[in-house]
Amino acid sequence: MAGGKIQKKRHQSMKGIGGGGIPFEKSMGQHILKNPSMVDSIVQKSGIKPTDVVLEIGPGTGNLTKKLLECAKSVVAVEVDPRMVLELNRRFQGTPYASRLKVIEGDVLKCDLPYFDICVANIPYKISSLLTFKLLSHRPVFRCAVIMYQQEFAMRLVANPGDSLYCRLSVNTQLLARVSHLLKVSRNNFRPPPKVDSSVVRIEPRQPLPRVSFKEWDGLVRICFIKKNKTLGALFKQKGVLTLLEKNYKTLQSLRLSGNPEGIAEGNEITSEDINVLANLMDDISMADDERENGDEDEEMDTELSSNMLEGSSFKDKVMSVLQEGDFLDKRASKLSQIFLSIVEVAAQDYFDVSNYFDQVIFFLFSFLVLFSFSVKLAFSINSGNLIRILMATSEGQPNIIFFS
Ligand SMILES: C[S@@+](CC[C@H](N)C(=O)[O-])C[C@H]1O[C@@H](n2cnc3c(N)ncnc32)[C@H](O)[C@@H]1O
């Protein structure tokens, strides 16, 4: 009887044993790709050149690493689990690959990444968004990243305006990169199998980056996606949104009056702070529950309300009339046909200036919404000669100025 139990227990633990007899650690997302033809497909779709330095994140027992070494000049692999690092070094020791493989032991989110041409990785899903934005902020810019994500996360990355999964993650990622879906990978290709299916996505950083302050950009996108099913009219009518717009508008005015140009954000260099802003609330948990995430933001907005901020309703009326003029009051951000990025691309082509900041706010709203749904070039030619600048707020409530120049 007792012997039977031991036998059963031994069999169960064997299911989770990696190469070299290492028990897999679920907390580190250790789901090893066991299907060699799937590994081949990923490597083949990566388009690795013999001159490429490849970055692999989470090499695990090295199945993908071996294939990468077969095509690339060299591979730098970052692995957090010391047992896997040992296993990996053991696997390639004494082989012709050893001199072309460098293993860095550590957490990829915490370490400085080396130079690489291309990143190929089957990553632990819980670091998906932070890693994506960390890669996108890496300099010098790499050619592309081919990454395995949880399928729903992948679909959000590549979603287009109008798709049901189009969200902040889609907008912010596509602001910085071109993304495309490469292949679906069922859970049965892994050992142990995860609870969800996966997808491989190609990410090609945009160069040069759009000239926009990313923090402020995200402030705008947050408002548009606070509640995905709410109309823009309802979103921009919220007291919290109007209060923040007006507060930041006033801050900009006083900065300008005091001749402090420092208050104007200009950056088009992405910083680690930007990564956190863009990646924030986009990780797997929030991804699976947009409405809950957005509900929290709603609360945040409401708690920031201050009754004396909205002096009279003229600010709100102007914002509403802009929305009405463009026929956007009843439109939803997720359903509009133009992508956010169009605005940046077009705005980056010119530098505009007007002296009245209130008009700038209104103009931005107008431009934003017009560009959103009509031909970008056409809409912009109608409005050329103006500055696109808006005061927006992030969750920290700091004064932020959307500034395209
Ligand atoms: C999904 S497994 C992939 C293993 C292997 N590349 C494969 O395809 O079979 C993820 C790997 O990432 C490692 N890992 C988890 N968190 C990490 C982190 N923060 N930094 C670096 N590696 C990490 C795990 O130890 C594991 O080896």
From TrEMBL:
Annotated TM spans: 361-380
Keywords on record: Membrane, Methyltransferase, RNA-binding, rRNA processing, S-adenosyl-L-methionine, Transferase, Transmembrane, Transmembrane helix
MF annotations from Gene Ontology: RNA binding; rRNA (adenine-N6,N6-)-dimethyltransferase activity
Ribosomal RNA adenine methylase transferase N-terminal domain boundaries: 38-207
EC number: 2.1.1.-
Compositional bias per record (Basic residues), positions renumbered to this chain: 1-13
Binding site for S-adenosyl-L-methionine: 31, 33, 58, 79, 107, 122
One annotated Gene Ontology cellular component of this protein: nucleolus
Enzyme class: transferase
Ranges for region Disordered: 1-20
Keyword rRNA processing: yes
CDD domains in UniProt: AdoMet_MTases
Stated family: Belongs to the class I-like SAM-binding methyltransferase superfamily. rRNA adenine N(6)-methyltransferase family.
UniProt protein name: rRNA adenine N(6)-methyltransferase
Protein source organism: Rhynchospora pubera
Origin organism lineage: Eukaryota, Viridiplantae, Streptophyta, Embryophyta, Tracheophyta
